[in-house]
Specification:
Blueprint lengths: L1 E5 L7 E4 L10 E10 L2 H8 L11 E2 L3 E5 L5 E5 L11 E5 L3 E3 L6 H21 L7 E5 L4 H12 L4 E6 L2 H6 L4 E4 L8 H12 L4 E4 L3 H14 L6 E5 L12 H6 L2 E5 L7 H17 L6 E5 L3 H5 L6 E5 L1
Parallel strand pairs: 9-10, 9-12, 10-11, 12-13, 13-14, 15-16
Antiparallel strand pairs: 1-2, 1-4, 3-5, 3-7, 3-16, 5-6, 6-8
Helix pairs in contact: 2-3, 2-8, 5-6
The structure holds NADP nicotinamide-adenine-dinucleotide phosphate.
NADP nicotinamide-adenine-dinucleotide phosphate binds next to helix 1, helix 2 and helix 3.
Length: about 325
Amino acid sequence: MKAAVIRNKGALPTIEEIDEPIQRTEDDLILTVKASALTMVSKAVSLGSHYSSRNSFPKVAGMEGVGESKNGERFYFNGSKGMYGALAEKTLVDKNRTVKIPDELDIVTAAAIANPGMSSYAALVYRAKITKDDVVLINGATGTAGTLAVKMAYALGAKKVIATGRNKEALKNAGADDYLSSSDYQDDQQTQYLYDLGKMISDVTIVLDYLWGKPAEQIMQALYQFSDRHSEIRYIQIGSLASSDIDLPSTLLRSTNFTLMGSGLGSLNKKEVISSIEKVFELAINNHLNVPYATFKLENIKEAWTKPSHPRPIIII
Ligand SMILES: NC(=O)c1ccc[n+]([C@@H]2O[C@H](COP(=O)([O-])OP(=O)(O)OC[C@H]3O[C@@H](n4cnc5c(N)ncnc54)[C@H](OP(=O)(O)O)[C@@H]3O)[C@@H](O)[C@H]2O)c1
Protein backbone atom coordinates (compact mmCIF):
# COMPACT_ATOMS: atom_id res chain seq x y z
CA MET A 1 0.00 0.00 0.00
CA LYS A 2 0.98 3.64 -0.46
CA ALA A 3 2.16 5.51 2.66
CA ALA A 4 3.91 8.77 3.64
CA VAL A 5 6.93 7.39 5.50
CA ILE A 6 9.30 9.26 7.82
CA ARG A 7 12.67 7.51 7.73
CA ASN A 8 14.51 9.41 10.52
CA LYS A 9 13.72 11.88 13.33
CA GLY A 10 12.99 15.28 11.77
CA ALA A 11 13.00 14.04 8.14
CA LEU A 12 10.14 15.00 5.81
CA PRO A 13 7.79 12.20 4.69
CA THR A 14 8.24 10.47 1.34
CA ILE A 15 5.68 8.34 -0.49
CA GLU A 16 6.66 4.66 -0.38
CA GLU A 17 5.10 1.21 -0.87
CA ILE A 18 4.87 -0.67 2.45
CA ASP A 19 3.11 -3.83 3.71
CA GLU A 20 -0.51 -3.53 4.83
CA PRO A 21 -1.18 -3.85 8.58
CA ILE A 22 -2.33 -7.18 10.05
CA GLN A 23 -4.89 -7.59 12.86
CA ARG A 24 -3.22 -9.36 15.81
CA THR A 25 -5.46 -8.69 18.86
CA GLU A 26 -9.19 -8.31 19.57
CA ASP A 27 -8.75 -4.54 20.01
CA ASP A 28 -6.94 -4.10 16.68
CA LEU A 29 -9.00 -2.42 13.96
CA ILE A 30 -7.80 -2.00 10.39
CA LEU A 31 -9.17 1.11 8.70
CA THR A 32 -9.05 2.25 5.09
CA VAL A 33 -7.97 5.85 5.63
CA LYS A 34 -10.09 8.52 3.92
CA ALA A 35 -8.82 11.87 5.29
CA SER A 36 -6.27 13.19 7.75
CA ALA A 37 -5.67 16.71 9.10
CA LEU A 38 -2.12 18.06 9.12
CA THR A 39 -2.28 19.75 12.51
CA MET A 40 0.81 21.18 14.22
CA VAL A 41 0.70 18.34 16.75
CA SER A 42 0.33 15.69 14.02
CA LYS A 43 3.44 17.01 12.26
CA ALA A 44 5.40 17.31 15.53
CA VAL A 45 4.44 13.78 16.66
CA SER A 46 5.37 12.41 13.20
CA LEU A 47 8.77 14.13 13.24
CA GLY A 48 9.49 12.97 16.79
CA SER A 49 9.59 16.48 18.28
CA HIS A 50 6.36 16.41 20.38
CA TYR A 51 6.31 15.47 24.09
CA SER A 52 4.01 12.52 23.29
CA SER A 53 6.09 11.24 20.29
CA ARG A 54 7.02 7.58 19.91
CA ASN A 55 10.57 7.81 18.63
CA SER A 56 11.11 4.71 16.54
CA PHE A 57 11.75 5.10 12.83
CA PRO A 58 10.86 4.47 10.04
CA LYS A 59 7.17 5.12 10.67
CA VAL A 60 4.13 6.29 8.76
CA ALA A 61 3.40 10.01 9.26
CA GLY A 62 0.09 11.39 10.54
CA MET A 63 -1.43 11.18 14.01
CA GLU A 64 -5.17 11.31 13.45
CA GLY A 65 -7.73 10.87 10.72
CA VAL A 66 -10.93 9.35 9.47
CA GLY A 67 -11.19 5.83 8.06
CA GLU A 68 -13.65 3.13 7.08
CA SER A 69 -13.77 -0.38 8.55
CA LYS A 70 -14.29 -3.42 6.30
CA ASN A 71 -18.04 -3.38 7.05
CA GLY A 72 -18.30 0.25 5.91
CA GLU A 73 -18.48 2.00 9.31
CA ARG A 74 -16.74 5.39 9.50
CA PHE A 75 -14.45 6.16 12.43
CA TYR A 76 -12.28 9.04 13.63
CA PHE A 77 -9.05 7.72 15.16
CA ASN A 78 -6.43 9.41 17.30
CA GLY A 79 -3.14 7.52 17.23
CA SER A 80 -2.19 4.35 15.34
CA LYS A 81 -0.40 1.19 16.43
CA GLY A 82 3.16 0.09 15.69
CA MET A 83 4.80 1.85 12.77
CA TYR A 84 1.43 2.74 11.20
CA GLY A 85 0.07 6.28 10.94
CA ALA A 86 -2.79 8.20 9.38
CA LEU A 87 -1.07 9.12 6.10
CA ALA A 88 -1.38 5.77 4.34
CA GLU A 89 -4.03 3.84 2.45
CA LYS A 90 -4.60 1.68 5.55
CA THR A 91 -3.82 2.00 9.23
CA LEU A 92 -4.00 -0.11 12.39
CA VAL A 93 -5.72 1.46 15.41
CA ASP A 94 -6.91 0.50 18.88
CA LYS A 95 -10.70 0.33 18.52
CA ASN A 96 -11.05 1.85 22.03
CA ARG A 97 -9.44 5.04 20.71
CA THR A 98 -11.92 5.60 17.88
CA VAL A 99 -15.11 7.64 17.58
CA LYS A 100 -17.93 6.60 15.27
CA ILE A 101 -18.73 9.40 12.83
CA PRO A 102 -22.43 10.31 12.72
CA ASP A 103 -24.08 9.84 9.28
CA GLU A 104 -24.89 13.56 9.07
CA LEU A 105 -21.19 14.57 9.18
CA ASP A 106 -18.97 14.44 6.08
CA ILE A 107 -15.50 12.90 6.46
CA VAL A 108 -13.52 16.05 5.61
CA THR A 109 -15.35 18.16 8.21
CA ALA A 110 -14.91 15.36 10.77
CA ALA A 111 -11.16 15.19 10.06
CA ALA A 112 -10.78 18.97 10.15
CA ILE A 113 -12.80 19.78 13.28
CA ALA A 114 -11.88 16.95 15.69
CA ASN A 115 -8.57 18.28 17.06
CA PRO A 116 -9.32 22.05 17.20
CA GLY A 117 -12.83 21.33 18.51
CA MET A 118 -11.49 19.04 21.23
CA SER A 119 -9.04 21.74 22.36
CA SER A 120 -11.80 24.11 23.46
CA TYR A 121 -14.55 21.56 24.33
CA ALA A 122 -12.30 19.60 26.72
CA ALA A 123 -10.82 22.78 28.24
CA LEU A 124 -14.24 24.34 28.84
CA VAL A 125 -16.06 21.22 30.02
CA TYR A 126 -13.46 19.03 31.76
CA ARG A 127 -10.96 21.60 32.97
CA ALA A 128 -12.90 24.87 33.51
CA LYS A 129 -16.28 23.21 34.14
CA ILE A 130 -18.11 26.00 32.35
CA THR A 131 -21.52 27.24 33.58
CA LYS A 132 -23.99 29.70 32.06
CA ASP A 133 -22.63 32.51 34.29
CA ASP A 134 -19.12 32.32 32.85
CA VAL A 135 -17.50 35.08 30.83
CA VAL A 136 -14.88 33.47 28.58
CA LEU A 137 -11.76 35.09 27.13
CA ILE A 138 -10.17 33.33 24.14
CA ASN A 139 -6.55 34.47 23.80
CA GLY A 140 -5.41 33.74 20.23
CA ALA A 141 -8.90 33.71 18.71
CA THR A 142 -7.46 34.05 15.21
CA GLY A 143 -6.40 30.58 14.00
CA THR A 144 -8.31 27.32 13.48
CA ALA A 145 -8.67 26.30 17.13
CA GLY A 146 -9.00 29.80 18.63
CA THR A 147 -11.70 30.95 16.21
CA LEU A 148 -13.66 27.74 16.77
CA ALA A 149 -13.23 28.21 20.55
CA VAL A 150 -15.32 31.40 20.37
CA LYS A 151 -18.22 29.45 18.79
CA MET A 152 -17.67 26.54 21.19
CA ALA A 153 -17.91 28.82 24.25
CA TYR A 154 -21.27 30.17 23.01
CA ALA A 155 -22.48 26.66 22.13
CA LEU A 156 -21.66 25.56 25.70
CA GLY A 157 -23.65 28.44 27.18
CA ALA A 158 -21.09 31.16 28.01
CA LYS A 159 -22.73 34.43 29.08
CA LYS A 160 -20.20 36.49 27.15
CA VAL A 161 -17.12 35.78 25.00
CA ILE A 162 -14.15 38.12 24.46
CA ALA A 163 -11.43 37.57 21.83
CA THR A 164 -7.79 38.71 21.97
CA GLY A 165 -4.81 38.13 19.66
CA ARG A 166 -2.77 40.00 17.09
CA ASN A 167 -4.65 39.55 13.78
CA LYS A 168 -7.31 42.28 13.94
CA GLU A 169 -9.31 41.14 10.90
CA ALA A 170 -9.51 37.57 12.20
CA LEU A 171 -10.53 38.80 15.67
CA LYS A 172 -13.28 40.94 14.14
CA ASN A 173 -14.59 37.92 12.20
CA ALA A 174 -14.41 35.55 15.17
CA GLY A 175 -17.88 36.72 16.28
CA ALA A 176 -17.16 37.42 19.97
CA ASP A 177 -19.05 40.07 21.99
CA ASP A 178 -15.88 42.13 22.18
CA TYR A 179 -12.29 41.94 20.90
CA LEU A 180 -8.94 43.67 21.32
CA SER A 181 -5.97 43.37 18.97
CA SER A 182 -2.46 43.79 20.42
CA SER A 183 -1.26 44.90 16.98
CA ASP A 184 -3.18 48.20 17.41
CA TYR A 185 -0.60 49.25 20.05
CA GLN A 186 3.03 50.24 19.46
CA ASP A 187 5.84 49.35 21.90
CA ASP A 188 5.49 52.74 23.64
CA GLN A 189 1.70 52.22 24.08
CA GLN A 190 1.86 49.10 26.26
CA THR A 191 0.51 50.89 29.36
CA GLN A 192 -2.53 51.97 27.33
CA TYR A 193 -2.89 48.39 26.02
CA LEU A 194 -2.89 46.99 29.57
CA TYR A 195 -5.48 49.58 30.60
CA ASP A 196 -7.80 48.84 27.64
CA LEU A 197 -7.32 45.10 28.09
CA GLY A 198 -8.01 45.30 31.83
CA LYS A 199 -11.23 47.29 31.32
CA MET A 200 -12.42 44.81 28.70
CA ILE A 201 -11.68 41.61 30.60
CA SER A 202 -12.45 42.68 34.20
CA ASP A 203 -15.45 40.31 34.46
CA VAL A 204 -13.76 37.30 32.80
CA THR A 205 -14.04 34.03 34.77
CA ILE A 206 -12.44 31.58 32.26
CA VAL A 207 -9.42 32.17 30.00
CA LEU A 208 -8.54 29.74 27.18
CA ASP A 209 -5.00 30.60 26.14
CA TYR A 210 -3.62 29.50 22.75
CA LEU A 211 -0.63 31.89 22.83
CA TRP A 212 1.16 31.93 26.23
CA GLY A 213 4.35 34.12 26.37
CA LYS A 214 3.98 37.91 26.59
CA PRO A 215 0.25 37.95 25.66
CA ALA A 216 -0.45 35.64 28.65
CA GLU A 217 1.67 37.77 31.00
CA GLN A 218 -0.29 40.85 29.92
CA ILE A 219 -3.64 39.15 30.49
CA MET A 220 -2.58 38.01 33.97
CA GLN A 221 -1.33 41.52 34.78
CA ALA A 222 -4.58 43.06 33.52
CA LEU A 223 -6.71 40.58 35.53
CA TYR A 224 -4.61 41.31 38.63
CA GLN A 225 -5.13 45.07 38.24
CA PHE A 226 -8.72 45.25 37.03
CA SER A 227 -10.77 42.20 38.07
CA ASP A 228 -12.41 41.60 41.42
CA ARG A 229 -9.60 39.76 43.27
CA HIS A 230 -12.11 37.47 45.02
CA SER A 231 -13.97 36.22 41.98
CA GLU A 232 -12.72 32.87 40.72
CA ILE A 233 -10.71 32.83 37.48
CA ARG A 234 -9.85 29.50 35.77
CA TYR A 235 -6.95 30.06 33.38
CA ILE A 236 -6.49 27.15 30.93
CA GLN A 237 -3.21 26.83 29.01
CA ILE A 238 -3.82 25.18 25.60
CA GLY A 239 -1.22 26.36 23.08
CA SER A 240 2.08 28.25 23.08
CA LEU A 241 2.25 30.03 19.74
CA ALA A 242 3.85 33.17 21.23
CA SER A 243 6.34 31.38 23.54
CA SER A 244 6.66 28.20 25.58
CA ASP A 245 7.46 30.14 28.80
CA ILE A 246 6.15 33.03 30.91
CA ASP A 247 7.21 35.02 33.97
CA LEU A 248 4.54 34.32 36.57
CA PRO A 249 4.41 36.83 39.47
CA SER A 250 3.96 35.03 42.80
CA THR A 251 1.71 37.86 44.04
CA LEU A 252 -0.85 36.98 41.38
CA LEU A 253 -1.34 33.51 42.86
CA ARG A 254 -1.32 34.73 46.49
CA SER A 255 -3.61 37.70 46.15
CA THR A 256 -6.25 36.53 43.66
CA ASN A 257 -8.60 33.57 43.38
CA PHE A 258 -6.70 32.37 40.33
CA THR A 259 -6.39 28.73 39.19
CA LEU A 260 -3.90 27.87 36.46
CA MET A 261 -4.14 24.55 34.61
CA GLY A 262 -3.42 23.00 31.24
CA SER A 263 -5.58 21.07 28.83
CA GLY A 264 -4.11 18.57 26.38
CA LEU A 265 -3.07 14.98 25.79
CA GLY A 266 -1.88 13.95 29.26
CA SER A 267 -3.75 16.40 31.49
CA LEU A 268 -6.94 14.96 29.91
CA ASN A 269 -7.41 11.22 30.20
CA LYS A 270 -8.14 9.09 27.10
CA LYS A 271 -11.84 8.82 27.99
CA GLU A 272 -12.15 12.61 28.19
CA VAL A 273 -10.41 13.07 24.83
CA ILE A 274 -12.65 10.49 23.10
CA SER A 275 -15.86 11.80 24.66
CA SER A 276 -14.86 15.41 23.77
CA ILE A 277 -14.51 14.41 20.12
CA GLU A 278 -17.93 12.67 20.18
CA LYS A 279 -19.45 15.89 21.53
CA VAL A 280 -17.58 18.02 18.99
CA PHE A 281 -19.15 15.95 16.18
CA GLU A 282 -22.62 16.40 17.73
CA LEU A 283 -22.07 20.16 18.07
CA ALA A 284 -20.70 20.38 14.51
CA ILE A 285 -23.99 18.92 13.26
CA ASN A 286 -26.42 20.71 15.60
CA ASN A 287 -24.68 24.11 15.75
CA HIS A 288 -23.24 24.07 12.20
CA LEU A 289 -19.65 24.38 13.48
CA ASN A 290 -16.89 24.12 10.89
CA VAL A 291 -13.29 25.19 10.28
CA PRO A 292 -11.69 26.49 7.07
CA TYR A 293 -9.64 23.81 5.28
CA ALA A 294 -7.73 23.13 2.04
CA THR A 295 -7.54 19.60 0.61
CA PHE A 296 -4.44 17.85 -0.83
CA LYS A 297 -3.86 14.38 -2.32
CA LEU A 298 -1.53 12.00 -0.43
CA GLU A 299 0.89 12.17 -3.40
CA ASN A 300 1.29 15.91 -2.67
CA ILE A 301 2.23 15.42 0.99
CA LYS A 302 5.47 17.44 0.69
CA GLU A 303 3.58 20.47 -0.63
CA ALA A 304 0.88 20.14 2.07
CA TRP A 305 3.53 19.72 4.81
CA THR A 306 4.97 23.18 4.12
CA LYS A 307 1.59 24.97 4.02
CA PRO A 308 0.42 27.04 7.00
CA SER A 309 -1.92 25.14 9.34
CA HIS A 310 -4.66 27.75 8.75
CA PRO A 311 -6.69 27.03 6.61
CA ARG A 312 -6.18 23.46 7.83
CA PRO A 313 -4.51 21.17 5.24
CA ILE A 314 -6.56 17.95 4.92
CA ILE A 315 -4.94 15.03 3.12
CA ILE A 316 -7.44 13.02 1.11
CA ILE A 317 -6.43 9.37 0.61
N1 LIG B 1 -3.90 21.40 24.02
C1 LIG B 1 -4.73 20.99 23.08
O1 LIG B 1 -5.64 20.19 23.29
C2 LIG B 1 -4.57 21.56 21.71
C3 LIG B 1 -5.36 21.08 20.63
C4 LIG B 1 -5.26 21.73 19.39
C5 LIG B 1 -4.34 22.76 19.22
N2 LIG B 1 -3.54 23.14 20.26
C6 LIG B 1 -2.56 24.23 20.12
O2 LIG B 1 -3.27 25.44 19.92
C7 LIG B 1 -2.49 26.34 19.16
C8 LIG B 1 -3.30 26.87 17.99
O3 LIG B 1 -3.55 25.80 17.09
P1 LIG B 1 -4.31 26.05 15.74
O4 LIG B 1 -4.58 24.71 15.19
O5 LIG B 1 -5.45 26.99 15.91
O6 LIG B 1 -3.19 26.80 14.86
P2 LIG B 1 -3.40 27.69 13.54
O7 LIG B 1 -4.67 27.33 12.87
O8 LIG B 1 -2.15 27.56 12.76
O9 LIG B 1 -3.54 29.19 14.06
C9 LIG B 1 -2.45 29.87 14.55
C10 LIG B 1 -2.92 31.29 14.88
O10 LIG B 1 -2.05 31.78 15.91
C11 LIG B 1 -1.67 33.09 15.61
N3 LIG B 1 -0.33 33.37 16.13
C12 LIG B 1 0.83 32.73 15.85
N4 LIG B 1 1.84 33.26 16.56
C13 LIG B 1 1.30 34.28 17.29
C14 LIG B 1 1.83 35.24 18.19
N5 LIG B 1 3.14 35.25 18.51
N6 LIG B 1 0.99 36.15 18.75
C15 LIG B 1 -0.32 36.15 18.42
N7 LIG B 1 -0.88 35.28 17.56
C16 LIG B 1 -0.08 34.35 17.00
C17 LIG B 1 -1.68 33.18 14.10
O11 LIG B 1 -1.99 34.54 13.87
P3 LIG B 1 -1.61 35.35 12.55
O12 LIG B 1 -2.83 35.18 11.69
O13 LIG B 1 -1.39 36.72 13.04
O14 LIG B 1 -0.36 34.68 12.00
C18 LIG B 1 -2.83 32.24 13.71
O15 LIG B 1 -4.04 32.95 13.62
C19 LIG B 1 -1.22 25.57 18.76
O16 LIG B 1 -0.21 25.87 19.70
C20 LIG B 1 -1.65 24.11 18.91
O17 LIG B 1 -0.56 23.27 19.14
C21 LIG B 1 -3.65 22.57 21.48
